[in-house]
Write a structure and sequence with these properties.
By secondary structure, the chain is of the alpha/beta class. It folds into 2 domains: about 300 residues, ANL, N-terminal domain (Rossmann fold), CATH 3.40.50.12780; about 100 residues, ANL, C-terminal domain (GMP Synthetase, Chain A, domain 3, 2-Layer Sandwich), CATH 3.30.300. The strands form 8 sheets. The protein has a 6-stranded mixed beta sheet, sandwiched between helices. The longest helix is centred in the N-terminal third of the chain and has 17 residues. The protein is globular.
């Protein structure tokens, strides 16, 4: 028996305390805690009677809607695991993610159900009538998995990050403690529920007694309506959206009711936009650095003051985790010297699903190695330097070059390829591919067509640059030096 409790248990405690309080608003549909609990119990019964048991995976493919949240809570009640599928993935990528977790059952919205046609697993579509009675709650351990959220792998294939009940409860507590979020503050779930931002902070809200407003993607007008009428704890705003949302608020002359904290990924947002949005919302900007694997920690204690255009983005370590900076031999580095950041604490994930080699490597020495390089300053703050595992952060999505390179290298006319990041005013960063040809018949059109067929839209390279094989900058060991390719782009002034 778990002494920590479970996500289901904490939600049901809120149901008992205030059954008539509004839990979820999804467009024209409004559900109190009592009504939501009835739906969750029925769904749990339907899943159990279809053979879903403790430890089984339920794969879900859907846009943001209340049924997504009901699936989280129903799975928590019976000890099942929800594998959250990214509907933006190309067919081969989606098939890999599904095959990886071997789901007992598939759940889908009517909009996306067709993409699961031909799968062997049983499929249920949201909106179908469920005539099952509730089943008793399954006793789960705090370390039992609840969610699998996918992260792009450096090998070019997504990995499934396993998040336990313990991690979800700890992340909820840390968010409230560090951002000053009240239990009854509302949350706007507009970012995809297959992402940490949508999934986890919706659960945080439902475990605390607040209201989740479900929005199908970044609907700026709907968000503007909500900031004028609701008390919101954390308003998540991704890079590329901050400036546009500020423009809309200025045009509307919006009167904000009350927001505790706004924004994310300050490193990828123009400082002037941070000053504008914080002034318009009357809320500081979250200067955090975390991940799907760690939650908001390890750097989650720094807020950018209202109206400030930050000249530097030094971050404060969370008091709810331990941090080391290490060199390539996993030896601690002194202040002022770059090192890979390593973390341990209660918000950590449980490892990658069925990836023993990756887990052994990333958790070596009892610390999770994030793959990001920081410098610790004399005052204890941390400055981000670069990524050990090079990736592109595009509009809130993580894109690893290996994913794109793997597809382009599938063309036999390609001799070499390296994907790098280019700054972008809208998305923060976008991928650009440098390609060496074996055959001059290969052109940009053919490469982009191949990428469109096999990769999600946000992973498409925004430009193809042809380079002679011998012109690729390389280290002494022969590895392509991405930073030198980035300098080529900057020298050409090829930014948007």
């Amino acid at each position: 028996m778990s002494l920590l409790g479970s996500v289901s248990g904490l939600f049901e405690a809120r149901v008992r305390v205030h059954p008539d309080r509004v839990a979820v608003v999804d467009g024209a549909r409004t559900f109190t805690y009592g009504a939501l609990d009835v739906r969750v119990r029925r769904l749990a019964g339907a899943l159990a009677r279809r053979g879903v048991a403790r430890g089984d995976r339920i794969a879900i493919l859907s846009e943001n809607r209340v049924e997504y949240l009901e699936t989280f809570l129903a799975a928590a009640r019976i000890g099942a695991i929800v594998a959250c599928q990214n509907w933006r993935l190309a067919a081969p990528e989606l098939a890999h993610c599904l095959d990886l977790v071997e789901p007992r059952m598939l759940l889908a919205s009517p909009r996306h159900a067709g993409r699961l046609a031909g799968r062997a697993e049983p499929i249920a579509v949201f909106g179908e009538t469920l005539d099952d009675a509730p089943v008793p709650v399954t006793e789960v351990d705090a370390e039992d998995p609840l969610l699998i959220l996918y992260t792009s792998g450096t090998t070019g294939l997504p990995k499934g990050a396993v998040l336990s009940h313990r991690a979800e409860i700890a992340r909820a507590a840390v968010l409230r403690a560090e951002f000053g979020i009240a239990p009854d503050d509302a949350y706007v779930a507009w970012s995809p529920l297959y992402h940490m931002g949508g999934a986890e902070y919706s659960l945080t809200t439902l475990m605390g007694g607040g209201t989740v407003f479900v929005v199908d993607g970044f609907d700026a007008e709907r968000l503007a309506d909500l900031v004028e009428t609701e008390r919101i704890g954390w308003l998540l705003l991704m890079p590329g959206m901050v400036g546009r949302f500020a423009d809309l608020l200025e045009t509307r002359r919006a009167k904000v009711r009350g927001i505790k904290v706004c924004g994310v990924m300050a490193d990828l947002v123009p400082p002037a936009d941070i000053a504008r949005i914080t002034t318009l919302l009357g809320a500081p900007y979250a200067n955090t650095f975390g991940s799907t694997e760690t939650g908001c920690p390890p750097c989650s204690s720094s807020l950018i003051r209202i109206g400030v255009a930050p000249a530097r983005l030094s971050k404060e370590q969370s008091p709810f985790c331990e941090v080391r900076l290490v060199d390539e031999e996993d030896r601690d580095v002194p202040n002022g010297r770059p090192g890979e950041i390593c973390v341990r604490g209660p918000t950590l994930f449980s490892g990658y699903w069925r990836a023993p080699e990756a887990n052994a490597h990333d958790f070596r020495g009892g610390w999770f190695h994030m793959g990001d390089v920081f410098v610790r300053n004399s005052d204890g703050t941390l400055d981000f330097v670069d990524r050990v595992k090079y990736l592109v952060k595009s509009g809130g999505e993580n894109v690893y070059p290996a994913e794109i390179e793997r597809v382009i290298l599938g063309d036999p006319r390609v001799a070499e390829v390296a994907v790098v990041r280019r700054k972008d005013a809208r998305w923060g960063e976008v991928p650009v591919a440098f390609v060496a040809r074996r055959d001059d018949s290969l052109d940009e059109t053919a490469i982009l067509a191949r990428c469109r067929a096999e990769l999600a839209g946000y992973k498409q390279p925004k430009a193809i640059r042809f380079l002679a094989y011998d012109a690729f900058p390389r280290s002494a060991s022969g590895k392509v030096q991405r930073h030198e390719l980035e300098r080529m782009i900057e020298a050409d002034g090829a930014t948007t």
